[in-house]
TrEMBL record:
The gene is def. The lineage of its organism: Bacteria, Bacillati, Bacillota, Bacilli, Lactobacillales. This is Peptide deformylase. It comes from Levilactobacillus suantsaiihabitans. Its EC number is 3.5.1.88. Belongs to the polypeptide deformylase family. The keyword Protein biosynthesis applies. GO terms for biological process: translation.
Length: 186
């Protein structure tokens, strides 16, 4: 199980490397990595377990963040209300954004990152809607359309596979600049 000590922090070159494609069928090592990446999110989103293991709760975790430069990330978007269904939960492997909306979206609170131990204020403009193509741990191909928060989370994770961190997208001169048709996401 990953703990905070296993999470690589900004400054480590692995976060600025282009990650390698994952080959199928998954090696035993990659199968375990996928399990561990998802387990981190599940445990961290359980308040009791989160506290017990001293984790920062997360909704996504990319392999480069645990020092593995591969195109794999877990995503667990919490259900909007108690007992509801998660809008998107999967381990995305070799993800490709096949189309993206012209309209941009950003989290009103800005973004953070488990690999960035500082607050970087500002809006992180991303595409409000994307069509995502990825493989799951069984090698099954998926093509899903995501919008708003799930779309933001997946773009944040895919960035980690392409040497990008959230603050790279923040406008240096005007961090809270926004074009008037940008969707502001709570
Ligand atoms: O690459 C992946 N990461 O760096 C983990 C990030 C991923 C999200 C950041 C913005 C979009 C995706 C993450 O989850 N966070 N960022 C740092 C601290 C907070 C935490 C978070 O948003 N937690 C959360 C939110 C809702 C419910 C439960 N927990
Ligand atoms: Ni991150």
């Amino acid at each position: 199980m990953f703990l905070m000590k296993d999470i690589v922090r900004d400054g480590d070159p692995v976060l600025r490397q282009e990650a390698a494609d994952v080959t199928f069928p998954l090696s035993a090592e990659d199968q375990q990595l996928a399990k561990d990446l998802m387990e981190y999110l599940v445990v961290s989103q359980d308040p009791e377990q989160c506290k017990k293991y001293g984790l920062r709760a997360g909704v996504g975790l990319a392999a480069p963040q645990v020092g593995v430069s591969k195109k794999m990330a877990s995503v667990l978007v919490p259900a909007p209300e108690e007992g509801g269904k998660s809008p998107f939960t999967d381990v995305i492997i070799n993800p490709v954004i096949v189309s993206e909306s012209v309209q941009m979206g950003a989290l009103t609170e800005g973004e953070g990152c488990l690999s960035v131990d500082r607050d970087v204020p500002g809006f992180v403009p991303r595409h409000d809607r994307i069509t995502l193509r990825y493989y799951d741990v069984n090698g099954e191909k998926h093509q899903v359309r995501l919008k708003n928060y799930p779309a933001i989370v997946c773009q944040h994770e895919i960035d980690h596979m392409h040497r990008t961190l959230f603050y790279d997208h923040i406008n240096k001169d005007e961090p809270f600049a926004r074009d008037d048709d940008m969707v502001m996401i709570e």
